[in-house]
Structure formats: structure tokens, C-alpha cells
Design a protein that fits this description.
By secondary structure, the chain is an alpha+beta fold. It contains eleven helices and 14 strands.
Length: 381
């Protein structure tokens, strides 16, 4: 166990040495000092966002031994693990659910390390420290979103409740081309995807994929306009701003892939993926024009084709979305861990999660029975 004097809470990563943080982060782009600090630097977290950084650090002298991305939250937006019902239960009984503590990458439903440490004892110390901090700070609850399975086990052993949700991921089974991938699907799904792509070609829609090194500021401004339009079409406000995307393009261009759709030489839609290790992560998209199938092409088929061409093992399509199953993305369980300060609510949520977990298991089993991939007897055309 680390000495208590080694514990520190910081309101920004600006004073934390990037090389020390990144040495613990394991190379995932969303956990990098640059990505998280870009959110702070551009005002996407902090200020009036409802995400107040309070990162947990464990030091040995001046050396960072462990860290945990941590935020005080005044709402439940941008988390992708939904606890609105829990908040309503508090409110119905005259209690405040907010503020709460959340360990996560803001606006990013991607599984990764939350206990940044090379040593299992340090990871254990981080869990003990964050639970102590939550209890002492008077928040209603603590939530760790999308930790690894190993980390979730450490949290469960410390008394936190585990929750399962479902995402849809695509696996590159050594496909030689997109047509090779389609040949593995059943006839109905294969035919539908081909029709979707053909209709776009017949409409004069063409695609270009740009790495972050290739993309210009104009490309990024166009992408952001599309991204903003998507939120506005849903009567919502985007979480991220243009300055954030331009900062990412500056500090981590090798991790970024833009897909740009054009018609008659003019761009009409764009999507952004982030590359990390052997996985490509679908993040944001938007369009200036509606064309049937354009969303699927920008957000799924172009990234999958990129994975096939570059030998990337996995494409994660983001949170939720049963429609992804028909496009070859299969269900994957993800985890979160939760602690509630009031025992009566902790017990009520524990019961709810037991029931919910059974439902999630049943849901995944049903999805797996409707695999889009062909049976051995199905033809290839």
C-alpha cells in the first residue's frame, strides 16, 4: 500500500509530466496525456461542461507511480452507461444524485485502463484511494466506466458493483478485400450491403480516406461542420469544439483517419475514426445531405475497408446499435463498476444489476443466434 502522503488530486493535467503519465497509460490514444489535456485545454471539460477534472495521482517522490482519470460530474451526459433512473430515484426521495464521481474518458465509450499503473499493488492502492476520496468528498456515488476485465475484478473485490452493457465490434478475420468479407456473410445481408453501396455509387458519391497527416485544416473544418449538424438535427449541443479537433490533428495525427464523401467534387459528409494499437475506433460523423446508406458507408464500411487494407484487427463501432449486427459487427460485453454512498441505494442498485445482468446475457444470446455470417450450406453469391 502506498503511503498516504503520496496521494494527490489535481484539477488539470497541465502540471503532470506527459512522459510519466503516458508511460502508465499503455499506449491507448484516448488515455494519453495529449488527448485528455486537449479536452481540458479547449474547454470541452472543465468550465461549464459539467465535467470537472480531479485526477487521482499516486507519487513516489517526484515520480508518478499510479494515476486515475477522474471527474466530478454535475449530470450524466457523455458517459454511455446510463444511470438516469438512479438519479430519478434519488430525486423522488428528496436527495441529490449530483455531484458524482466518474472515472472515464469523457465522451468515449471505449474499454481501456482506468487504473494507470504497472504494478498490481499500485492498482489496488488506486481503488482504495478513490473509494476513500469518494466517501470523504460527500458525493452520492462513484462510477468507473469501461475498465478492463482485470480492473473490474479489482474493483469488485473492493466492494464495487459491476454492470454489463453491450457494444458491437467487427473482427478482421484476415480478409483480403471487402468483397472477401462480404463473401462470409449470409445471402440476405450480403445482398443488402452491396445494394447500399451500389446506390451511393449511382448517386455519384465517392469516398476518400485521409490520415491525420494528410488531412488539411479545411478537411477538419468541414468535418466539424458535419459533426455539429448531426447534433443540431437531434436538437442537441455537441460536446466537442473545433479547437479540440484541430488540437488532436496537431498532437496525434498518426492516430486519426477521416473518411470524406463527395458528390460532383464537393464534400457532403465525413466521419472520424481513431487508431490505437490493433484497433480502429469509430467516433463521430455528420452530413450536409441525406443519401440512403450514407451513414453506414461513412461510419462502418469505409473504416472496415481501412482495417482490411492496413491489417488492423478490430473495428469498434461505438456504443449500442443493433443495426450494426446486420453490417457484420458482433455483440461484445463491456463493463462498468459502481459504488453508492447510501447503503439503501447501494443495495437497491445491486438487486437491479443482478436482474439486468440476466437480461443482458439473454440479449447477447439472442443476438448471437442471428449472426449475419452465413451457414456452411449458404452460397457465396
Amino acid at each position: 500500500m502506498c503511503a498516504a502522503k503520496a496521494l494527490e488530486i489535481v484539477q488539470s493535467l497541465s502540471g503532470v509530466p506527459a512522459e510519466q503519465w503516458d508511460a502508465l497509460a499503455g499506449g491507448q490514444p484516448f488515455l494519453s496525456h495529449g488527448f485528455l489535456h486537449a479536452l481540458e485545454k479547449t474547454g470541452c471539460v472543465g468550465a461549464q461542461s459539467g465535467w470537472t477534472p480531479c485526477h487521482l495521482l499516486l507519487r513516489d517522490g517526484r515520480r508518478l507511480q499510479g494515476a486515475m482519470p477522474l471527474y466530478i460530474k454535475g449530470h450524466s451526459y457523455g458517459e454511455y452507461v446510463f444511470d438516469w433512473g438512479w438519479a430519478e430515484a434519488y430525486e423522488r426521495n428528496g436527495l441529490h444524485y449530483y455531484p458524482k464521481l466518474v472515472s472515464a474518458v469523457p465522451f468515449t465509450p471505449v474499454t481501456g485502463n482506468r487504473l494507470l499503473a504497472a504494478d498490481s499493488r499500485i492498482r489496488q492502492a488506486l481503488v482504495e484511494a478513490v473509494l476513500s476520496f469518494a466517501a470523504d468528498s460527500g458525493v452520492s456515488s462513484l462510477h468507473c466506466l469501461f475498465p478492463t476485465e482485470t480492473e473490474a475484478g479489482i474493483m469488485a473485490a473492493a466492494g464495487m458493483l459491476l454492470r454489463h452493457t453491450v457494444q458491437f465490434h467487427w473482427r478482421n478475420e484476415g480478409y483480403r478485400s471487402f468483397e472477401d468479407f462480404l463473401a462470409r456473410m449470409n445471402h440476405h445481408k450480403r445482398k443488402k450491403i452491396r445494394q447500399e453501396r451500389r446506390k451511393l455509387r449511382d448517386s455519384g458519391i465517392e469516398f476518400q480516406r485521409l490520415t491525420g497527416e494528410q488531412a488539411t485544416e479545411g478537411n477538419w473544418r468541414f468535418f466539424f461542420d458535419c459533426y455539429r449538424r448531426t447534433y443540431r438535427s437531434h436538437m442537441s449541443t455537441p460536446y466537442l469544439n473545433l479547437e479540440f479537433f484541430l488540437e488532436l490533428a496537431r498532437i496525434m495525427p498518426h492516430n486519426l483517419v477521416l473518411s470524406v464523401a463527395s458528390r460532383q467534387g464537393a464534400p457532403v459528409a465525413s466521419s472520424l475514426c481513431v487508431l490505437g494499437g490493433d484497433s480502429l475506433y469509430g467516433r463521430y460523423w455528420g452530413t450536409r445531405e441525406y443519401h440512403p446508406g450514407l451513414h453506414f458507408e461513412c461510419c462502418y464500411y469505409q473504416p472496415m475497408e481501412h482495417c482490411i487494407e492496413r491489417g488492423i484487427a478490430c473495428f469498434e463501432g461505438g456504443a449500442q446499435g443493433e443495426h450494426k449486427l446486420a453490417r457484420g459487427l458482433l455483440p461484445v460485453k463491456t463493463l462498468s463498476a459502481h459504488w453508492l454512498a447510501r447503503p439503501e441505494y447501494f443495495d437497491a442498485v445491486a438487486g437491479f444489476l443482478r436482474r439486468e445482468t440476466r437480461g443482458v446475457d439473454h440479449y447477447v444470446n439472442e443476438l448471437e443466434e442471428h449472426s449475419p455470417f452465413k451457414a456452411a450450406s449458404d452460397g457465396a453469391n
